[in-house]
Structure formats: structure tokens, C-alpha cells
Automatic annotation (TrEMBL):
This is Uncharacterized protein. Residues 51-70 are annotated as: Disordered. It comes from the Eukaryota. Keywords: Signal. Residues 1-22 form the signal peptide. Residues 52-70 have a biased composition (Polar residues).
Length: 401
């Protein structure tokens, strides 16, 4: 297998090559590494490592931290039966990226054949909410045609037509007669067969993100969701509203492309706590609005739970998306705005953003019930925000898992 250092070198090489032949490739790979669920992956692996270290030393488990992420706990359970060597090889070879790179840059565009979920069980739901969102936000200036894409681990089972071209795109300069792309593909497929669930192993596709139209005219604006996300929601018993929430959240990133909130490189939304919580708020606003998703209170309550499940506790990371409580509270705030009688007409995007900015100032001071813990929250939050900005700048250096 190609080791991590080799891959980093390969990506750097790809950067210079992409100036000529594949301009979008290398930055896109880095961006995918940082999209929606990278923080949970880091957290889950760290939790496993911490537990392993504690067990080896025969020490009692440490007390639980105040922040607890359902998605990180689930991921930890997913990787529990994978050997450390296989897990290292998995990430060193970017297996969690391959199905997305295949779909975005190798697969022929056949939008009418896309299906969501391992067996297409969420296709109708995703398609329906997509049509609602395009209609609801049509006056906002968002693109008329945002396309739906799905990522499936099973695509990697097709060695000749899918896996090999994807690897060639990513690692083109790393192969030689001693180790060909076919050797690499064989090694990867052998590893996948050892993973729980094989090609349906959720980590292969545990991600979702929005892509904006890129320089290349062949690239469309899209929303891409991997099977792993649906498997996660199903495991937690939240797959009634979970799929709609994921779509609405990604669609909200397209609104942010309009607002200029979500800084982009090569068309993929960068992650940052504020823009993620704004996307959560937009999502809940749309799903609760009677002209949008028109969800009833029980359904919106489930949306709050889904948002909570996706929070992460990697607060010091540049890619931190918000804690579980903060993500739930962002959807509570957005849904309440939709319920506000004075705002029955759709709110202007910039007005929405201004109101959100005010709410966000005290986001680090929210209780479980989304109330402020301290009366002095506002003054304190400015110091916290300043720290976050610094963290964002410094944290940009740590990219790979
Ligand atoms: Zn997001």
C-alpha cells in the first residue's frame, strides 16, 4: 500500500500538474477531507485511542466530558471491529474520499439514475424535498438547477471502470512498474472485503456536501450525499426526518454561496462553525415554513434531534461545526423564525443573516434548553469569538486525518 507520506507527496505533485490538466483535483481532495463529518471521524478515532490507552494501562475510565456527540459515538462503534492497521491504511489511502471523487470527477453525469440509500430507499424523499427547496428559494437568486448526486461504496467494487480511473485521477504520479494502479486497486479491494459490511462499510461514504459550479463548464452545482449518512440516521432511528434535514442543510450552503458567507475553494463549501450553524438555521426555517417543508411540530422536533446528533465536540478545530446543543439550538431558532406570524412571507436572505448574526454572538452561552446561561453572555462572547477567529487561522494547517 502507498503510505501517508507518499500520498501527501503525490497530492503536492498533483497540485503542480493540475495547473495544466486537472486544475480542480488537488484542492477538491483537500476540501472533501474537511467537509461535513471530518470532525466526528477525528473525535471517534481519538475516543477509541483514548479508550485503548486507558485499557492498556489498567486505569479506570475517565469521567465523561460535558460535550457528547451521538455521531462520534456511532462512528466509534463502527470502527470498533476494524484493526488499527486496517484503519490506518483506510485513511492513508483516502478510502473515505474515493466514492465521492468517483462520482464528482469520474462517473458520467446521469442525474436521472441517481439513487439515495443502499437500495434507493430514500430517493423519493430526497427528490421531493429537493423540488420543494428549489421552489421555496427560487426568488432568492439561488441557481435554478442544483443537481442531486449520491455516493456509494459499491462503486469501488468495479475495479476496471470505476476504481482504477478514480485512483489514476488521485495518485497518477505515484505508480510505476513495481506498483501499478491495478496493484493498488487490488490492495484496496482486499482491504474493503475485511471491513464490516464490505463495500457497504459506512465510513466509505459518511459525508455530504454542496458543490458550486466550478470553472470547468462540465461541473454543475450539486448536492452530494453518501450512503453512510443514511446508515447513521437509520441506526439512531432518525431516518424519518434525517434525510430531509441533510438535504436542506446542504441546500442552505448554496444560499450561503449567494451571501458570500461560505467561503469556497474549487466550489466546495469550507467548513466553519458559524456558516454551519447558519446552514442549520436556514434548514429548519425552510422545513418548518408552511410554504416550504411544512413540517408539523413532531417532525420539527425530530429535526432538532437530527441536528443534535450531528454536532461534534472538537471545539478547538478549525473545522468544528458546533456542539450538539448549538446545532440543535440553531434549528430551534430557525424553526421559530418560520413560526413567527410577522414573518409568514419568506424572509429576505440578508435579513435572515443579520438576525442570525445577533443570535450567534451568544451561541457559546446556550443551555440545553437553548436559553442563555449568563446575563453577561454578550460581553463574554466577543472574547470567545476573537479566539475562534484565531483558531480558524491557525487550525488551517492541520488538514489530513
Ligand atoms: Zn454543512
Amino acid at each position: 500500500m502507498i503510505n501517508r507520506a507518499f500520498i501527501k507527496l503525490a497530492l503536492l505533485c498533483a497540485l503542480s500538474i493540475c495547473m495544466i490538466t486537472a486544475r480542480r483535483l488537488e484542492p477538491v481532495v483537500y476540501d472533501i477531507e474537511q467537509t461535513e463529518f471530518a470532525q466526528q471521524l477525528q473525535h471517534a478515532i481519538k475516543m477509541r485511542d483514548d479508550l485503548s490507552a486507558t485499557t492498556n494501562k489498567q486505569q479506570p475510565p475517565q469521567a465523561s466530558t460535558p460535550c457528547s456527540s451521538p455521531s462520534s459515538r456511532w462512528l466509534k462503534s463502527i470502527i470498533a471491529d476494524v484493526s488499527e492497521e486496517d484503519l490506518t491504511t483506510f485513511f492513508d489511502n483516502h478510502l473515505h474520499v474515493l466514492p465521492f471523487v468517483y462520482k464528482l470527477h469520474v462517473a458520467p453525469r446521469q442525474y436521472d439514475q441517481e439513487y439515495f440509500g443502499l437500495d434507493g430507499e430514500y430517493t423519493q424523499e430526497i427528490t421531493s424535498v429537493h423540488n420543494q427547496a428549489q421552489e421555496f428559494w427560487s426568488d432568492s437568486g439561488v441557481r435554478d438547477e442544483i443537481y442531486l448526486l449520491s455516493a456509494h461504496g459499491s462503486d469501488l467494487a468495479d475495479r476496471h471502470d470505476k476504481l482504477v480511473p478514480t485512483l489514476e485521477l488521485l495518485f497518477r504520479n505515484t505508480y510505476d512498474s513495481d506498483y501499478t494502479v491495478y496493484d493498488h486497486a487490488a490492495d484496496i479491494q482486499e482491504l474493503i472485503t475485511r471491513l464490516p459490511g464490505g463495500y457497504n462499510f459506512p465510513l466509505l461514504t459518511f459525508n455530504a456536501f454542496a458543490t458550486d459550479e466550478m470553472d470547468d463548464e462540465e461541473d454543475d452545482s450539486s448536492i452530494i450525499i453518501g450512503d453512510g449518512y443514511f446508515q447513521f440516521q437509520q441506526a439512531l432511528g432518525m431516518d424519518s426526518e434525517g434525510p430531509e434535514y441533510a438535504h436542506a442543510h446542504e441546500f442552505s450552503h448554496h444560499l450561503q454561496f449567494l451571501l458570500g458567507v461560505s467561503d469556497t475553494q474549487s466550489g466546495i463549501a469550507q467548513v466553519a462553525k458559524k456558516s454551519e450553524l447558519l446552514a442549520d438555521a436556514f434548514s429548519a426555517y425552510f422545513l418548518a415554513h408552511d410554504q416550504g417543508g411544512n413540517m408539523v411540530s413532531d417532525e420539527i422536533s425530530n429535526v432538532h434531534s437530527v441536528a443534535f446528533s450531528l454536532g461534534d465536540c472538537v471545539k478547538s478545530s478549525a473545522g468544528h461545526h458546533g456542539t450538539p446543543i448549538q446545532r440543535r439550538c440553531a434549528t430551534v431558532w430557525g424553526a421559530e423564525l418560520a413560526d413567527d406570524r410577522e414573518d409568514m412571507d419568506k424572509i429576505d436572505l440578508f435579513e435572515f443573516q443579520n438576525r442570525f448574526d445577533t443570535w450567534f454572538e451568544t451561541v457559546d452561552d446556550l443551555s440545553d434548553s437553548c436559553q442563555h446561561l449568563h446575563s453577561a453572555a454578550a460581553s463574554r462572547s466577543y472574547r470567545i469569538l476573537s479566539f475562534q477567529v484565531m483558531t480558524l487561522l491557525i487550525g488551517g494547517f492541520s488538514v489530513l486525518l
